[in-house]
Amino acid sequence: MPGTPTIRRRLDRLLTASLGALLAVTMQTAPARADVGDVTEYPITTPESFPAGITAGPDRALWFAESEANKIGRITTGGTVTEFAVPTASSFPFDITRGPDRALWFTEGFGDRIGRITTAGTVTEFPLPVAGSFPLGITLGADRALWFTENGTNKIGRMRVDGTVTEYAIPTPDSFPYHIAAGPGGVWFTETIAGKIGRVDFSGNVTEYPLPTGFEFPSDIAAGPGGMWFTASEHIGRITESGTLTLFPLPTPFSGADGITRGPDGNMWFAEQSGLIGRITPAGEITEFEVPQGAAKVPFNIATGPDQAVWFTELFGNAIGRVEALPRRGSGPSAAAQQAALTVPRHEHPRPLVPCRTGTPPGAASFCR
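User: That's the sequence. What structure does it adopt?
Assistant: Structure tokens below.
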């Protein structure tokens, strides 16, 4: 593990990209016959909203968190966007999940709150017990409670629908708990700085599984075939309930793998901040699909929609993207698909963009490498 100064340098290294240089996002017309991997993009109403987390709602729409605009967005499968303001100013809404009550629940990093929004747009906020908790990832557990990572206090939180909170400490200090997902034996989460995958059972017992070098920078995690699947900078990983780890190297170097979800085709789909959407089969075969001008848009989080497609947020592109995940009748392989070998040169694993615990106002400076 690197020392504390190194951790601070990594967390405080702000992205220096100029937002003014980004090209304007325009909606692309979907092809008459879509092939697997074809991408359609829909602009968000509010400029520079920095959309982060995304999830399928109970109303056959996708819901997403706008970290800079301080809003929760809703997009239909036809591309119509509606936005709802979060009451606490500059709260940094980041991740979002479907709850047990037909509402959506989301984290407010700088607001130290967990938010709840109904499908009609009514927002309720629940303050966390400790200031500086900086909640980031959130998921619905099998116990019908909301589980979330507390990045600022190095804990995992559990909230009932009435707002009652229980917290569980992570054994490794300064582990940077990030994303979280329900899985076998409890909920599983990533520890980005510690280079570990964690699990907490419903009794509050925390188990940690170190990655091979500790420098893989695990990001998102989701249940899938054979265990929990996670992104780790330049790898896609799988961990079984017993802790057996397998890493699959990505074809594209410096790709910054981030969000991951189980797709409608039974494969795992993931976002690459370098501008790609990837797919990995249970056997580890990887295909990458290009997002137009994707390196400037930064594909970030990803979810499977009610329309049998995969949807993703563009952190800097100010748009929601849709990827065709299943072949249409009579369609052939997508010309955008880039089938790549799984052997890549060895080099340092760069860390993807993650939220900063800096207390700065939300925006570009809220995301560090």
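The CA atoms of residues 35 and 335 lie 8 Å apart.
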